[in-house]
Each structure stands twice: as C-alpha cells, then as structure tokens.
Amino acid sequence: MIFFALADSRRRAILEKLSEEKKTVGELADNFSLTMGAISKHLSLMESANLIYKTKQGRKVYCHMNFDIWKEVASYISMQAKFWDNRLNELEGFINTRG
C-alpha cells in the first residue's frame, strides 16, 4: 500500500509539503489546485498507507507527515538494494567466466 500511495506524483508533492510542516486539508487543496473531494481521496489513501495522520483542532483538520513509517520504507529499500547488488555481482561473475 505504501508504494502504491507513493506512485502518484501529486501524493509525493503533498508529502513534500507536509515534510516542512503540518497543513490543513484546505491549505493542501489550495496549494495543488485540487478540489476538496480530490484532495480528500489522496489524503485518505495516504492515511491508509500510514504515510500521514490527521489531527483536529477546533473546526480545522490538520495533516501531518508520519516520519516513523520512513524507517520501515528505508529498511525495505536497503534490503532490496543488497539483494539486487548481490544478484548483479553474480551475473557479472557469470558473464566474466563466459567471456
């Protein structure tokens, strides 16, 4: 779910804004020229993926970046990088013995 949420460039741009500071749903909609319905769909998907969380202060709903999830993402990417590095080294070794 995380990588599906990150696949959309608008959601990545929203996350970039949220990495600077919390924003209201309305502020995000204005920043990206999206309707409230469209921004709500993006935010719901990112919230389901635990990339963001929301808090309510009075009548305003604030969105926050969930920085803890990035530790999990970094760990997964690191694991994949090691796996593919090893596989590519094996392939290079095989090619060198054939050449």
Question: In brief, what are we looking at here?
Answer:
With 99 residues, the chain is of the alpha+beta class. It has five helices and three strands, in the order ααβααββα. The longest helix has 30 residues.
SSE blueprint:
Blueprint: H1 2-6, H2 9-20, E1 23-24, H3 25-31, H4 36-48, E2 52-57, E3 60-65, H5 69-98
Antiparallel strand pairs: 1-3, 2-3
Helix pairs in contact: 3-4
What does the model show?
With 99 residues, the protein is α+β, with helices and mostly antiparallel strands. Helix content is 68%, strand content 14%. It contains five helices and three strands, in the order ααβααββα. The protein has a three-stranded antiparallel sheet with strand order 1-3-2. Strand 2 (52-57) and strand 3 form a beta hairpin. Helix 3 crosses helix 4. It starts with a helix and ends with a helix.
| Cα end-to-end separation | 43 Å
- Rg over CA atoms, rounded to whole Å, is 19 Å
Mean pLDDT: 93
Shape: elongated
Computed structural class: alpha+beta
What's the tally of helices?
5
Largest sheet: 3 strands, antiparallel
- Give the helices and strands as they follow along the chain: HHEHHEEH
Helix content: 55-70%
**Uncertain segments of ≥5 residues (pLDDT<50)?**
none
Fraction of residues in β-strands: 5-15%
Number of strands: 3
- Strand order in space, largest sheet: 1-3-2
